[in-house]
Model the fold of this input.
Amino acid sequence: MKSVICNWKLNPQSFNEAKRLFDATKKIAAVKKKAQVVVLPPSIFLHYLRGGYKGTRIEFGAQAVSNEQSGSHTGEVSAMQVLNAGATYALVGHAEQRASGVSNADVHTQVAAALEAKLDVILAVGERVRDTQGQYLFTIREQIATALEGVPLTRFKNITIAYEPVWAIGAPQAPDANAVHQMVLLVKKVIADAYGDRALKAVRVVYGGSVDEHSAASILEIPGLHGVLVGRASLDPKHLEAIIDAAHTNG
Ligand code: PGA
Done:
C-alpha cells in the first residue's frame, strides 16, 4: 500500500479551516481505499481532529517532537503527548526543523523518544545542495546513520525514511520520476550497506519535495517507493485528490 503523508506545516490559521481541510481529506480517503493517508496537522489541531474522527482510513502524526520527555521546556511537544493525542506517527528531522537548528544529534534523540513512546517514525533526510563531487551521499548517509544509531533491527518496521532533498522542497516542480527513482535506490543502498537486507525489507521509503497533482502519478509508479510526503499540495483538496488517487491506483 502506498502512503500519502500530508504535511500541513504552519497551516491553516483557524480550527474551522483545519476541520474543513480534514473533512475534504477524509472524503477522498474514504473512496481511495488502496492508499494509506496520514495527516500531520499543527499540534494545536491534532487532538481535536483525532478526537472527532471515528473512521479508520486516516492516521495522524505530529510534525516534530521534543528531545525531552517532560519538564521545563517551554513551547515543546513531547512524543508521549503526541501519542496520547491519538497519533501513530512522528515526523522527525524535517528540513525546516533542521534549518531552525535541529542537529543530527537532536534528530537521533527525537527518533529514540518517538520509538520509546511507541510512535512510528517518519525520518526526513536530504541534502541541501546536489554537488558534483558526491558530497550529498555522505550527508544522507550521516543523517541516516546518526538518526538510527542504536535502533534495534526489530524496530525498523516502525521507520519510514522520507527522502526530501532540501532543494526540491517548495520548488516550482518535483524532479522527474527517473531522478526520484535514482534517489530512492540510493537511500535503499545506504540502508542495505549499513544495516543489511532485513532492515531494508522492514523500512519504508517515501519521497517528498514538490509532489503535486502533475508529478504524483509518475512518482508513485516508481517500483520500491512506498509513498510520498506532500506539503503545499496537501492543502488543496483537488490537488490532494489527484495524489491520493495515484497512490490508490498504484497500491
Ligand atoms: P512541498 O513540501 O510539497 O510543499 O515541497 C514538502 C515537505 O516539505 O514535506
About this structure: The radius of gyration is 17 Å. The longest strand covers residues 2-7. The CA atoms of residues 67 and 110 lie 5 Å apart.
